[in-house]
């Protein structure tokens, strides 16, 4: 029951509600707990209520971190390989 | 879907796992408790324990609301449905949890009680509006995540002046549960975990700041984590780094959803409708002070505990069931004699096997049987 998921807001409805898309399924949810939600925003959905918006910049920042981690590993791997071939 | 696929990227995951192997000191042990049942679910679903070095172990904590609710409260819900003949509305995974004498809400339903499974508390309100001649009770359970939606329906019920709707409130709080796990060990001068994977969706509401004093008091690093496999691996890496550096800070890995102060609107709605209980019983952790919420006196008309007379429960836990020890992280599901023999998801004896977020169900479902 505690599982919450990110969903995208497709349209805003009356009574502080919104229509969201959950893997192709359209569902009506409540926006009573969050302010300033716009069409296109991602929100965390739990028991029919949006709990918060997902901050796109923060999501991208975390993903960038992983990119950098992997890039560094690839560089290290490449330099090890080139060291090896030089012997 | 956006923000799911990226955080399930296998290349990234392999890289983060490599980092954990490289940075975990083979001379040390790292026992990390994931507080939240949602994290337990992800750990098993993606086989994360298999990616970790042998000296990095995950221990399952008490963060499944279905699992921590004691039998007495389940018996009270059954009593509401059977003796008081209300329409009892409950989240689905609560229906199969055994109360006293192996009864459950599901069995009560099969014997004629009007028990309805719902997805959202808003549905309970709708049922009350559609059935003005019936008393409708919402069986509210859950941590800080699930509390604001209950608050929202209490406020709505008051606004609509509903006379046939009430809430049986069983909302519980995360910080006291963490204290309940760490305090006895501290008192005994022992260390049972080196770090805590902090709850993600609870923190969406409470904010990361809610754990600062716990991290300091128990000198235990806490990393608030998202629920995708990469989030959890990354959080484990951050915990390893804190342990190696001798730090015990609260770090927020789930910054795309969690802020330091949380959702102020949701907090305020919960505070308007609910207040601390002096004490509340938890399965596995016993009676803990200021660990749960009750409905405020101003909303007494919507409080099922005031509206209906409930008998004291005679519930006795099955002595062979190790759920209490599993919830405290003191035992693994496989340490229980009943696990995967008598107790299975089809015939759950204890709550940890009922809920999909329970440690026993997660072990069982993802092939970690004996």
How is the secondary structure organized here?
The complex is a heterodimer of chains A (87) and B (370).
Chain A: E1 5-13, E2 17-22, E3 25-30, E4 42-46, E5 49-53, H1 56-86
Chain B: H1 10-23, E1 30-36, H2 37-45, E2 56-63, H3 65-68, H4 71-82, E3 87-91, H5 105-110, E4 115-118, H6 121-130, E5 136-142, H7 147-159, E6 165-171, H8 174-187, E7 195-198, H9 200-206, H10 212-217, E8 222-224, H11 229-245, E9 250-252, H12 264-273, E10 274-276, E11 279-282, E12 286-289, E13 293-295, H13 304-307, H14 323-327, H15 351-354, H16 359-365
Parallel strand pairs in B: 1-2, 1-7, 3-4, 3-5, 5-6, 7-8, 8-9
Antiparallel strand pairs in B: 10-13, 11-12
Helix pairs in contact in B: 1-11, 7-12
Can you put this structure into words, describing what you see?
The complex is a heterodimer of chains A (87) and B (370). Chain A is an alpha+beta fold. Chain A has one helix at 56-86; strands spanning 5-13, 17-22, 25-30, 42-46, 49-53. Chain A has a single domain (5-83), classed as SH3 type barrels (Roll). Chain A contains one helix and five strands. Chain A has a five-stranded antiparallel β-sheet, with no helix packed on it. In chain A, a hairpin with a 2-residue loop joins strand 4 and strand 5. The longest helix of chain A is centred in the last third of the chain and has 31 residues, at 56-86. The radius of gyration of chain B is 21 Å and the shape is globular. In chain B, the strands form four sheets. In chain B, strands 2-1-7-8-9 form a five-stranded parallel β-sheet. Chain B has a four-stranded parallel β-sheet with strand order 4-3-5-6, with helices on both faces. In chain B, strands 10-13 form a two-stranded antiparallel ribbon. Chain B contains 16 helices and 13 strands. With 370 residues, chain B is an alpha/beta fold. At the A-B interface, strand 4, strand 5 and helix 1 of A face helix 1, helix 2, helix 6, helix 7 and helix 9 of B.
């Amino acid at each position: 029951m505690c599982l919450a998921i990110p969903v995208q807001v497709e349209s805003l409805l009356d009574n502080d509600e919104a229509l969201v898309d959950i893997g192709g399924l359209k569902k009506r949810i409540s926006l009573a707990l969050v302010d300033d939600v716009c069409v296109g925003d991602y929100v965390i959905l739990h028991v029919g209520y949006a709990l918060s918006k997902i901050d796109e910049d923060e999501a991208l920042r975390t993903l960038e971190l992983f990119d950098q981690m992997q890039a560094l590993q690839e560089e290290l791997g490449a330099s090890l390989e080139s060291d090896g071939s030089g012997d | 879907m956006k923000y799911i696929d990226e955080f399930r990227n296998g290349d990234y995951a392999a890289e983060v796992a490599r980092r954990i192997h490289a940075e975990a000191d083979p001379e040390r042990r790292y026992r990390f408790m994931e507080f939240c049942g949602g994290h337990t679910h992800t750990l098993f679903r993606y086989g994360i324990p298999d990616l970790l070095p042998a000296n990095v172990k995950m221990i399952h904590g008490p963060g499944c609301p279905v699992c921590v609710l004691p039998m007495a409260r389940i018996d009270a819900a059954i009593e509401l449905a059977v003796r008081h003949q209300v329409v009892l509305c409950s989240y689905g995974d609560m229906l199969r949890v055994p109360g006293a004498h192996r009864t459950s809400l599901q069995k009560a339903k099969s014997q004629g009680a009007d028990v309805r499974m719902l997805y959202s508390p808003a549905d309970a309100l709708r049922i009350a509006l559609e059935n003005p001649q019936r008393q409708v009770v919402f069986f509210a359970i859950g941590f800080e995540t699930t509390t604001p939606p209950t608050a929202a329906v209490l406020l709505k019920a008051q606004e609509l002046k509903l006379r046939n709707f009430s809430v049986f409130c069983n909302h519980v709080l995360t910080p006291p549960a963490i204290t309940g796990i760490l305090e006895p060990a501290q008192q005994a001068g022992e260390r049972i975990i080196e770090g805590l994977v902090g709850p993600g969706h609870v923190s969406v509401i409470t904010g990361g700041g809610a754990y600062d004093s716990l991290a300091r008091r128990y000198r235990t690093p806490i990393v608030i984590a998202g629920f995708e496999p990469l989030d959890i691996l990354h959080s484990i890496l951050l915990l390893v780094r804190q342990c190696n550096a001798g730090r015990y800070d609260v770090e927020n890995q789930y910054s795309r959803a969690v802020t330091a102060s949380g959702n102020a609107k949701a907090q305020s709605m919960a505070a308007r409708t609910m207040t601390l209980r002096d004490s509340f019983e938890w399965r596995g952790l016993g009676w803990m002070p200021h660990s749960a919420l009750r409905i405020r006196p101003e909303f007494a008309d919507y409080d099922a505990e005031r509206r209906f007379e409930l008998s004291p429960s005679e519930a006795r836990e099955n002595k062979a069931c190790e759920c209490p020890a599993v919830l405290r992280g003191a035992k693994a599901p496989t340490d229980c004699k009943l696990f995967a023999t008598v107790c299975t998801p089809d015939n759950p004896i204890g709550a940890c096997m009922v809920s999909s977020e329970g440690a026993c169900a997660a072990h069982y479902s993802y092939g970690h049987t004996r």
